[in-house]
Write a structure and sequence with these properties.
three-stranded antiparallel sheet; Arc Repressor Mutant, subunit A; 15 strands; DeoR/GlpR transcriptional regulator
Length: 260
């Protein structure tokens, strides 16, 4: 791939995803991280994006909060429909873990009104949203704050969840690759997800159909390790059959209008 083709791809992806990760780009495009950083510097000089530590965000969304909001707005109808299906799993007197990510954030916005719900989360925007919600006790999972992703990271001991066992973990991901492995763009974020899975009786993955078949540099875990995948009706029959063959329950949410 020529330099101008590589840079055009970067501009397209940063505007679609709201974030680029240097190590992920280097692995996918088969070039060094030095080359990627040079490309990002070139694009920043031309006003096409803004560089951050370890990557870049869109030029008109130079802080992580704006980038998060952009990602949350993408395919918001599908994400909200997935969130509404996920909310059906929640009961009173439960302990749940809500992972970071925009689809899980949509779930936080539609939590059912149930009593005595304990919520653990590494996600800063999600914890802030749930503060003061009646019937919900929020526990912020500790660790180092990763500003690019607005969440805490670290191992289970650092994050203070060694003694936590949740009824349900609602998990997000950057994608599911052709090997049926969940993928992420950041090794530190992948480590958090691996830790969280060990502390839940049931794992529910929230992933819209656009994430099926994506590539990524960091594998998190096989999708066969989760109990349920909730997605939208854009999932292909082939992907759905392959997930079912692993023994994973597949719930297909009916997509609602993004203006609803």
């Amino acid at each position: 791939m020529l330099a101008h083709e590589r840079r055009r791809l970067m501009v397209n992806e940063v505007n679609q995803l709201g974030r680029l990760v240097t190590s992920d780009l280097a692995a996918r495009l088969g070039v060094s991280e030095v080359t990627i950083r040079a490309d990002l510097e070139h694009l920043e000089r031309r006003g096409r994006l803004s560089r951050t530590r370890g990557g870049a965000v869109p030029a008109d969304s130079s802080d992580a909060i704006d980038a998060f909001d952009m990602r949350a707005a993408m395919r918001s109808g599908a994400k909200r429909s997935i969130a509404l299906e996920a909310a059906e799993f929640i009961r009173g007197d439960q302990t749940v873990i809500l992972d970071a990510g925009t689809t899980v954030h949509h779930l936080a916005q539609v939590l059912p009104e149930v009593p005595n719900l304990n919520v653990y989360t590494p996600a800063l925007p999600l914890a802030q949203h749930l503060i003061g919600v009646e019937g919900v006790t929020v526990h912020m999972i500790g660790g180092r704050i990763e500003p690019s992703w607005l969440q805490t990271v670290g191992n289970a001991s650092v994050q203070g969840i060694d003694d936590v066992t949740a009824h349900i973990l609602f998990l997000g991901c950057a994608g599911v690759d052709e090997d049926l492995d969940m993928i992420e763009h950041s090794p530190s974020v992948a480590e958090v997800k691996q830790n969280l899975v060990r502390h839940a009786r049931k794992v529910v993955l929230l992933a819209d159909s656009a994430k099926m078949g994506r590539m990524g540099s960091t594998k998190v875990l096989p999708v066969g390790r989760v109990d349920t995948v909730i997605t939208d009706d854009g999932i292909t029959d082939d992907f759905r059959r392959r997930l079912a063959k692993l023994g994973v329950e597949v719930v297909v949410a009916r997509e609602i209008s993004e203006t609803s």
